[in-house]
Write a structure and sequence with these properties.
Elements (H helix, E strand, L loop, with lengths): L2 H16 L7 E7 L6 H9 L7 E2 L2 E9 L4 H13 L5 E4 L3 H14 L3 E3 L8 H6 E3 L4 H15 L3 E7 L2 H13 L6 E2 L3 E3 L7 H9 L4 E5 L6 H9 L6 E2 L7 H7 L7 E4 L15 H15 L6 H21 L7 H11 L5 E2 L4 E2 L15 E6 L2 E4 L2
Length: 381
């Protein structure tokens, strides 16, 4: 055999070794804070993966789930590991806004589609290009809160929220929505997710004498300012957001959080919705299966976000498979493009219609107002 032929074969073999190998299955990397201050959310997110199909678009799928300890740095490290070591086709996460935002940077750098499992601030450039968001936008959900406040004649609103991106998102939504409803946000107090006392902040809120208070927390830590307000005699309505609606919030706040009001998706109260409600059947089925697996009254919004994320991927995979095989950059790009055109996917939270200019795709059908009555979340009448 001629030297030139041998050299050509050697170069070809080296090229094959250097080229990324396609997978036999689709791989999805999931980073969640199942420990740390966000664990009351992260655990339900993780639980949902016990209830989802073992295929996406008819193709076998492997979910690689890692704990990021509710730390943004860890979430970013997990995301990078998923891409560089596990060769995933998409990443999901996390249950904390700062952690999810950190993951979007990795998604952009590595050109890997990402599905955020918590609301995130508006993104730009490559981060916006590669990221999709499952939960309802904060502005969409808080508009339901403002509508209810307006019916009550609320004019002044006290605010206390997390001292991080989630606290900013809820506060900014209220600041944008309140003026058009004839309201003014009169305080902007903050606290840490792990704080056990918010006495100073609550006293400042009460000194402003607001008609209502909005808490920009999530999970069980959202109960801390609510309890403090009631202990110090605040009698007005206390509103929360869609990051609060789970059993851990009630268990932490106990009787003090009776009457708490929050927006959420249909899966918290599917039995109370009319049969004509767009996603009642999907929400009811998932809620029944979740409580059968994890116990009565364990339903929560967060497990539904994980489930809905898999529904979006399930709808996108068949189109991506027409263009490339899993495990390749071409498949990741094709999957991103397909996600951008997913239409009429009925999930536990709402009906998703994505587009190049809308990577969330939910509307008013994805929200209801609930309140705590007799120790459980019920549809607000």
């Amino acid at each position: 055999m001629k030297r030139s032929t041998l050299q050509a074969l050697a170069f070809a073999a080296a090229g094959l070794l250097a080229a990324p190998a396609a997978h036999a299955e689709i791989r999805i990397g999931v980073s969640l804070g199942t420990t740390g201050p966000g664990s009351s959310l992260g655990i339900p997110y993780k639980n949902a993966f016990q209830l989802i199909p073992k295929t996406l678009g008819g193709e076998p799928v492997t979910y690689i789930v890692l704990d990021d300890e509710s730390k943004p740095d860890n979430a970013a490290k997990n995301a990078r590991k998923f891409v560089t070591e596990d060769k995933v086709d998409a990443i999901m996460g996390s249950n904390g806004v700062p952690s999810a935002v950190a993951m979007t940077q990795v998604a952009a750098e590595t050109k890997t589609p990402m599905i955020a499992l918590t609301p995130i601030p508006p993104l730009e450039g490559e981060r916006a290009h590669w990221s999709f968001v499952v939960p309802q936008t904060t502005e969409l959900m808080m508009s339901a809160v403002v509508d209810d406040m307006k019916k009550k004649g609320v004019k002044t609103v006290g605010y206390i929220g997390f001292s991080d991106t989630w606290g900013d998102l809820v506060y900014n939504a209220m600041q944008k929505l309140a003026p058009a409803a004839g309201m003014k946000v009169v305080t902007n107090e903050r606290y840490g997710r792990a704080d056990t006392s918010v006495t100073g902040q609550v006293l400042k809120v009460m000194a402003a004498n607001p008609d209502a208070v909005v808490v920009g927390g999530s999970g069980s830590p959202a109960a801390t300012p609510h309890v403090a307000l009631r202990e110090r005699g605040y009698k007005g309505p206390i509103y929360h957001n869609h990051g609060t609606v789970n059993l851990a919030f009630i268990q932490n706040g106990k009787k003090a959080v009776e009457g708490a009001i929050a927006p959420t998706g249909a899966l918290i109260v599917p039995e109370d919705l009319p049969d004509s409600y767009a996603n009642k059947a999907v929400a009811l089925d998932f809620t029944k299966r979740y409580e059968a697996a994890f116990g009565p009254e364990t339903r929560n919004a967060f497990a539904g976000y994980s489930f809905d994320a898999t529904l979006l991927l399930d709808a996108a995979v068949p189109e991506a498979m027409k263009k490339a095989r899993p495990g390749t950059p071409e498949f990741r790009a094709a999957l991103r493009d397909a996600l951008e055109h997913v239409q009429n996917v009925v999930g536990t939270h709402g009906v998703y219609n994505l587009s190049p200019t809308n990577h969330n795709g939910l509307d008013e059908r994805a929200r209801v107002l609930v309140e705590v009555k007799n120790g459980e979340w019920v549809l607000k009448k």
